[in-house]
Amino acid sequence: MSEKILEKDELESMLIGVGILGTGGGGDPEFFGKPLVEWDLKKGREYRIIDPAKIDDDAFVVSGGYAGSVSAYTSIGDMLQKWEERYELLEAFKVMESLFNKKIDYVVPFELGGVNTPVILSLAARAGIVTIDGDGLGRAAPETQMSSFLGHGISITPMPFVDKEGNVIIVKHSVKSTYPDEIMRHALELNGGIGANNHYPMSGKQLKESVVPNTITFSIKVGDAIRNAVETKSDVVDAFIEVSKGIELFRGTVKEMKGEDVRAHYLAKATIEGTGEYAGKTMEIIFKNEAMMARIDGQIVTVFPDLICMIDPKTGKGIMTINIKPGVEMAVVGVPAHERLRECLKTEVGREAFSPARFGFPEVKYEPIEVLVKRVLG
């Protein structure tokens, strides 16, 4: 078994990377991820990762993370202290172990994000185990069923959920893939908008067939590229495009952002006026916590699960959905989703789970970004 301990410098780069790849959600790395990482390092906790290819087929692996509207996470200071007494993610982890009556060997992040990647690393450190270098998406997503794990035949359930008050719900079985997330959203609405879950119990063999691999180390590479561009005064957007194999879609200034919380999700639409070569054009981005669809002058150029990455062209940092307001400058880069994620769309359960109907556009059908960009931008 070949484990790697992540050093402070690597974690700084990782937070930059997940902040961009999280597509506006997954938690703000600056206000939540960084304080948690620094807190854990001071406590002597080690963040250990392992390449998914190196784990045994019979290992017991679970996923998980924190859930709630991106607008519910407004303060980390008190939370860190409370987490020393009761870490909801660890409580959900222990419930999962009790359900199966066996020890969990590894945890794997549900998604990439400034909170949901470090909280799993922190969970593993607190539980004395190792985190899989990978996740279920290679980006962040607003709903639990939106995962490569589900699309490759792994059940979400049983899914223990623990809210910040200590209430525990277990979704033992679900007929529809969307049911566990919907039950959790009701619970979040009832009690404070924040909680943690464990889900997708699987074998090492299943994990290796379904995980989007090596995304933690990829996030570090992205962060390194951005930091290097800042240091050398190069274009940070070009640096991200080079490392991610992404496509520049737009540069402009936010004209309007309208949003509201609905069932512990932040639903919003940003209107961006083009600048430079994009002058005279308008981009709209549709959000459900994360950026889910982008249109230029009414024509779709990217749709979930392909990534819509919003970058501050000066700093290279990812722009969080909750921080988008009039006057904010952004570059928008589209990145093709990992093939493992796209494979899910070939299955009936995957099409239902990932459907644009989940973010209000039942008439839209997924097409790869490469096809859409060629059609719209030439």
What does this structure look like?
It is a single chain. This protein has 378 residues and is an alpha+beta fold. The chain has two domains: 3-213, CV3147-like domain (CV3147-like fold); 245-377, CV3147-like. The protein contains 13 helices and 17 strands. Strands 1-2-5-4-3-9-7-8 form an eight-stranded mixed sheet, sandwiched between helices. A seven-stranded antiparallel sheet has the order 15-14-13-12-11-17-16. Strand 7 and strand 8 (168-171) form a beta hairpin. Helix 1 (8-21) runs antiparallel to helix 2, helix 1 (8-21) crosses helix 9 (215-231) and helix 9 (215-231) packs antiparallel against helix 10. The radius of gyration is 19 Å and the shape is globular.
